[in-house]
Amino acid sequence: PVLLISGEKDLKYCSIAQRMQAALPNADRISIPQAGHMPHLERPAATAAAINHFLARLSKTAHKS
After folding, report:
1. For residue 29, what are the β-bridge partners?
2. Among 8, 60, 61, 58, which Cα is nearest to 32's?
3. Measuring CA to CA, how many Å separate 36 from each of 16, 33, 42, 44?
4. Alpha-carbon distance 21 to 7, whole Å?
5. Cα separations in angstroms, 52 against 18, 23, 47, 61
6. Which own/partner contact pairs does 44-52 have at CB distance under 8 Å and 24+ positions apart?
7. Per-residue pLDDT tens digits for 2-45
8. Residue 59 and residue 50: Cα distance in Å, rounded?
9. Is the pLDDT at 65 greater than 70, yes or no?
10. Which of 58, 35, 22, 57 has its CA nearest to residue 5?
């Protein structure tokens, strides 16, 4: 599983993440609103929430197996 994170204002990396998602069968992609090139610094709470949501989904999937 892969989580691709980009800031919505960083069009270059949003495009790269979109292409990576197409190439990686188990990839999820999220674009952090109101963030540019460094969403983890610009919007840390939103980035952390996205990561926590991704990890929670992985945990639920792992427990079902």
Report:
1. 4
2. 8
3. 14, 9, 7, 12
4. 15
5. 21, 24, 9, 14
6. 47/5, 50/3, 50/5, 51/3, 51/5
7. 999 999 999 999 999 999 999 999 999 999 999 999 999 999 99
8. 14
9. no
10. 35
